[in-house]
Amino acid sequence: MARILVPGGAGYVGSHACKALAVAGHEPVVFDNLSQGHRALVRWGPLEIGDIADEERLDAVFRQYRPDAVMHFAAVASVGESVENPDLYYRNNVAGTVSLVEAMRRHGVGVLVFSSSCAVYGCPKTVPIPEDHPQAPINPYGASKLMAERVLADFDRAHGIRSIGLRYFNASGADPDGETGEMHDPETHAIPRMLMAAAGRLPQFDIYGTDYPTPDGSAIRDYVHVGDLADAHVSGLDYLLGGGRSTAVNLGNGTGTSVLELIEAVERVTGRRVPYRLRPRRPGDPPVLVADSGRAGAVLGWRPKVTSVADIVATAEAWMQGPIAGIRRRA
Q1: Where are the domain boundaries for CATH 3.40.50.720 in the chain?
Q2: Are 9 and 32 in contact, with CB atoms under 8 Å apart?
Q3: Mean pLDDT in order along the chain per 10 residues (331 residues)
Q4: Whether 90 is catalytic
């Protein structure tokens, strides 16, 4: 069993990864400032409250728990917000990562699994997107993730801290057991917002862009189940603990679903209509993002298990109707 420090482990993907770590026999120690995370999602190990920018607090937690590795989710992650507030993204996602790996160096921890993003690629020249595709992010969020990857590569060269960057595409769905799921405030992700519109909790779902060069004019994305992402993080940890070299891999289903097709899937699963409104494109949104995840299969032995968009939607719908999300909704 390894003890893993998990900054951002009280959030959406981080909490699923903590469950996967516990199932695999590891001990996750969540380190979170709870600005976006939730105490209710910390269920598989201790919670230490703090910010990765706080050197003294980081040092105290490293001394107390002496982790074997770090799994890094602590970041802000909204494309639109990053365009409006780039300072927030460079401060949290880049400077925060520097602070974290400096603490790792001080305490002799040499392995890090990093939550990266397909946003590092920008507008793809080829689809599906391989890892050697040019990296030209078109928004500050993607730029901040690319900069963080560069930080990690430089710390490997200088200090031998090995890392794996997991560039996932659209994280979606929820834990099939109903123990964790999305609890963003405000909610920005497409599937929960569509479900909220179908349930009458939103007046409508906004479709940003209907003139993209796609079959139906709406943007196409690769939706990958959050449980599959969590499994990939554990596989990445095992790879590094087994002596693997620093690398980066894509995580996606390898198939694209347009916004209008996603609405159809939500309507099939719920049996309710999703009212929607057509809006202009948002700055920083590429028309198509679909993954080539072949390297993840070769390096980690990873393949997505939940490949149907309807099945992904069904887990999200079950979570939103469950007791934990219900408590949050009534609060």
Answers
A1: 3-171+223-251
A2: yes
A3: 97 98 98 96 98 98 98 92 95 98 98 97 94 95 97 98 97 97 90 97 96 96 98 98 98 97 98 97 87 98 97 97 64 40
A4: no
Question: Burial letters for 252-285: b for 16+ Cβ neighbours within 10 Å, e otherwise?
Answer: bbbbbbbbbebbebbeebbeeebeeeeeeeeebb
Q: Evaluate whether the domain defined by 3-171+223-251 bears CATH number 3.20.20.80.
A: no
From the list 89, 141, 168, 208, the catalytic residue is: 141
- Whether cis (ω within 30° of 0) applies to the bond prior to 186 is yes
Cα Rg of the chain, angstroms: 19
Nearest residue to 322 (alpha-carbon basis) of 178, 216, 208: 178
In terms of CATH, what superfamily is 190-221+254-330?
Answer: UDP-galactose 4-epimerase, domain 1 (3.90.25.10)
Question: Could you tell me if 31 and 11 are in contact, meaning their C-beta atoms sit under 8 angstroms apart?
Answer: no
87 SS3 class = helix
Alpha helices in the chain (DSSP H): 12-23, 55-65, 79-84, 86-89, 96-106, 140-159, 190-198, 226-241, 259-270, 294-300, 309-321, 323-330
User: What CA–CA distance (Å, rounded) separates 267 from 273?
Assistant: 6
Q: Hey, what amino acid is at 116? A: S
pLDDT recorded at residue 329: 47
State the Cα–Cα distance between residues 265 and 12, nearest whole angstrom.
22
Please check whether residue 180 is in contact with residue 13, taking contact to mean a CB–CB distance below 8 angstroms.
Answer: no
DSSP element (H, E) containing 72: strand 69-72
DSSP string, 164-221: EEEEE-EEE---TTSS-----SS---HHHHHHHHHTTSSS-EEEE-S-SSSTTSS-EE
Q: Cβ of 39: how many Cβ atoms within 10 Å? A: 12
Task: Compute the residue count for the chain.
Answer: 331
What's the distance, CA 214 to chain centroid?
Answer: 25
